Amino acid sequence: MNRIKRLDESILVCVYYGLNGERLIRRGHKLATLLDCPLYILTVDSKPIDNFDAEKSGYIERWTQLADELQVEKFIICDNEKRPIQKVVADVAKKYGITQIIVGQSAQSRWEEITKGSFLNVLLKEVPFADFHIVAVKRPIEEEEYGTFEKGVRAYVIRDEENYKIVFTCPKVEYLEGIFFKEIGTDFDNGIFKFSYENKMNEVAIKEGFVSNPHLIHSILSPIH
């Protein structure tokens, strides 16, 4: 039987696209577990969700899976949002009785609507009733991992005789869908292919359009054939 969570505390994690999102969510979950209280996740975008590119859609998909995995109270997606982000955060915080908010240290440069001043200072004025937790973003790691790759694009891996290759239009045969990050400065399709399988993010290396180590892909696609 599920325990009834405390209602005197409630945590909101604000995430934006990038590697730090999952780290923030897990930090929020750890704190919510310690306090035995509800956890909410919020992301805001000025574009409609139907217009998100492959990279953004990939993050939304991963965060949705993570929210389910961690039994988050609610994953709130405010798309097609024209209001300033601090107003959205304030409204969500009031609606759900939020007492603690977790944001990334570099949020003021990522959340494009905040153009002047500190994002935290703006939020403090809008949400004076909540405590804030600022989680440092490990930019060097992010740059090291993705700095040599182009922006991710939606891609598909399909069987090609005994190998597996990457294509960029939805195939009519069985496929594995994910996001391809191409190495900068190469004329070939070299890079990494990231995909979700069994509620986990996985990645395989791509060399000249083919999966370098196909064992994982084979175990997923081979039962279909």
Automatic annotation (TrEMBL):
GO cellular component assignments: plasma membrane
GO molecular function, one term: phosphorelay sensor kinase activity
Protein name in the entry: Universal stress protein family protein
Top-level lineage group: Bacteria
InterPro entries given in the database record: Histidine_kinase_KdpD
